Amino acid sequence: MLAYVFWHWTRAGVAPAVYEAAQRAFHAALASHAPAGYAGSFSTAPPPGRLPWVSEGNAYEDWYLVEDFAALGALNEAVVSGARAPAHDAAAAGAAGGTGGVYRLRHGRVLREPRHALWFRKPEGMRYDELFTRLTPLVERSGGALWMRQLTLGPAREFCLHAATPANLPAPFAALAVTLRPVWPEHSGRPGA
Fold first, then answer.
1. 3-state secondary structure (DSSP) of residue 125
2. Contact at 8 Å (CB) between 160 and 106?
């Protein structure tokens, strides 16, 4: 599974509640008129100023899940066309900017309402097979998902571990820990649902 991750932030003067309502309407339109290979989406709000690759104000992080790179192309075409276009345009009108990346699920299960994210790089000198071996038990204990950036697409760090509860990486890993507030799907009241 792949995820197109889109970080975006509000224009000055746009109320978060108004912006989030438009974002939810767009995610709902996309879910109702899903392109081939689309596997759903979720959106979170990290605390303002917490992600160094997000430059302004109220930030949001959308994860669009697809089966493969072909489905990523179909998603790219679909989000701005057909029945999804009005909702997309309304959501985009409140955005001051955005940036994105592509991540692959390496281990675990997708969390539709992650509450915590650990963003990190591979420690210098560590092989990828060692990284995955060392982190697999943590991913399994946390019931989370380990994502790896693909083709160096995007400004964020190479890895993201999503979890429903706080988690810590063992030495020598150094992570940026971020608490997330679910925006889409609408909060179900179940952490990690």
1. coil
2. no
The answer to whether the Cα torsion of 59, 65, 66, 69 is positive or negative is positive
CA 46 to chain centre: 10
Task: Name, in order, each residue with C-beta under 8 angstroms of 97's C-beta and a sequence gap of 6 or more.
Answer: 8, 9, 55, 56
* Residue 173 in tokens: 């890993």
- Verify cis geometry, omega within 30 degrees of 0, for the bond prior to 166: no
Tell me the average pLDDT of the chain: 93
Q: What is the pTM of this model?
A: 0.93
Asked if 41 contacts 30 with a C-beta cutoff of 8 angstroms, the reply is yes
In which element (H, E) is residue 74 found? helix 69-78
- Whether the CA torsion 70, 77, 55, 14 is positive or negative: it is negative
The answer on pLDDT for 187 being more than 90 is: no
Please name the residues in contact with 193: beta carbons below 8 A apart, sequence gap of 6 or more. Answer: 112, 113
User: By the 8 A CB rule, do 109 and 143 touch?
Assistant: yes
Interval 114-138: pLDDT, tens? 999 999 999 999 999 999 999 999 9
Nearest Cα residue to 163 out of 99, 107, 123, 104: 107
Neighbours of 140 (CB within 10 A): 13
Rg (the chain; Cα; Å)? 16
Q: Which amino acid is at 15?
A: A
